[in-house]
Amino acid sequence: MADIAGIPVPGQAVFVHAYALPPLPYPYDALEPHISAEIMTLHHDKHHQAYISNLNALLTNYSSAVAQGRVADQIALQPGLRFHGGGHINHALFWPSLAPASSDDAKKPKKKAPQLTKALTAQYGDVEGFWAAFSKTLLGIQGSGWGWLVKLDGSDSLRIVTTKDQDPVVDAVPVLGIDMWEHAYYLQYRNGKQSYVDNVWQIINWTTAEARFTGTRDDALDVVQVTLSV
């Protein structure tokens, strides 16, 4: 029996993609002293890996529920898919957003991100004005979540937004995202969120940010697609 409009019928086998942990684009200690090697190791190898492992298990269960026509189970699995899928997406975007402080990628925003810095200057006065506004938003996040600089689809208009827990950006291009979960900073900064934010400013990868600003949402999410292992 054929499916209708791409919707599998009960009993039909469903192919399940699996995701793998992407390697960091730099050594674990490359962001020191701003983010310690200990945090990077735990954050990448343990936290990000856990999101991927849980996502893969949920996708397998979801495909089984689809194949067997168990709609209630499909609905029950969706919050987990959103959380762990979002966790994978957000972290896959996060790692390339950072660069060693001594690199040109981090030190020279005007050279490495000319179009983005021009847009930031137009909206926030200058790059430092943007970071002041962004920092205020990051520090205002209650509980766990992410702060984002996004580009609205079909324009060069920028917005600072937040997402709760591991919700990903779904309606814009994620230009820059900062993880404000405690696991991203607590081992090093304890409850000093301000110090964490101040130090992250020193390790922004402006080359990555420029590529996302000048590209599409699909371009930005290529970092997720390349982690497909099956």
TrEMBL record:
<feature type="domain" description="Manganese/iron superoxide dismutase N-terminal">
    <location>
        <begin position="19"/>
        <end position="98"/>
    </location>
</feature>
<comment type="function">
    <text>Destroys superoxide anion radicals which are normally produced within the cells and which are toxic to biological systems.</text>
</comment>
<dbReference type="InterPro" id="IPR036324">
    <property type="entry name" value="Mn/Fe_SOD_N_sf"/>
</dbReference>
<comment type="subunit">
    <text>Homotetramer.</text>
</comment>
<dbReference type="GO" id="GO:0004784">
    <property type="term" value="F:superoxide dismutase activity"/>
</dbReference>
<feature type="domain" description="Manganese/iron superoxide dismutase C-terminal">
    <location>
        <begin position="115"/>
        <end position="212"/>
    </location>
</feature>
<keyword id="KW-0464">Manganese</keyword>
<dbReference type="InterPro" id="IPR036314">
    <property type="entry name" value="SOD_C_sf"/>
</dbReference>
<protein>
    <recommendedName>
        <fullName>Superoxide dismutase</fullName>
        <ecNumber>1.15.1.1</ecNumber>
    </recommendedName>
</protein>
<dbReference type="InterPro" id="IPR019831">
    <property type="entry name" value="Mn/Fe_SOD_N"/>
</dbReference>
<feature type="binding site">
    <location>
        <position position="183"/>
    </location>
    <ligand>
        <name>Mn(2+)</name>
    </ligand>
</feature>
<comment type="similarity">
    <text>Belongs to the iron/manganese superoxide dismutase family.</text>
</comment>
<comment type="function">
    <text>Destroys radicals which are normally produced within the cells and which are toxic to biological systems.</text>
</comment>
<dbReference type="InterPro" id="IPR019832">
    <property type="entry name" value="Mn/Fe_SOD_C"/>
</dbReference>
<keyword id="KW-0809">Transit peptide</keyword>
<dbReference type="InterPro" id="IPR001189">
    <property type="entry name" value="Mn/Fe_SOD"/>
</dbReference>
<dbReference type="Pfam" id="PF02777">
    <property type="entry name" value="Sod_Fe_C"/>
</dbReference>
<dbReference type="InterPro" id="IPR050265">
    <property type="entry name" value="Fe/Mn_Superoxide_Dismutase"/>
</dbReference>
<dbReference type="GO" id="GO:0005759">
    <property type="term" value="C:mitochondrial matrix"/>
</dbReference>
<feature type="binding site">
    <location>
        <position position="43"/>
    </location>
    <ligand>
        <name>Mn(2+)</name>
    </ligand>
</feature>
<keyword id="KW-0560">Oxidoreductase</keyword>
<keyword id="KW-0496">Mitochondrion</keyword>
<dbReference type="InterPro" id="IPR019833">
    <property type="entry name" value="Mn/Fe_SOD_BS"/>
</dbReference>
<feature type="binding site">
    <location>
        <position position="179"/>
    </location>
    <ligand>
        <name>Mn(2+)</name>
    </ligand>
</feature>
<feature type="binding site">
    <location>
        <position position="91"/>
    </location>
    <ligand>
        <name>Mn(2+)</name>
    </ligand>
</feature>
<keyword id="KW-0479">Metal-binding</keyword>
<dbReference type="GO" id="GO:0030145">
    <property type="term" value="F:manganese ion binding"/>
</dbReference>
<dbReference type="Pfam" id="PF00081">
    <property type="entry name" value="Sod_Fe_N"/>
</dbReference>
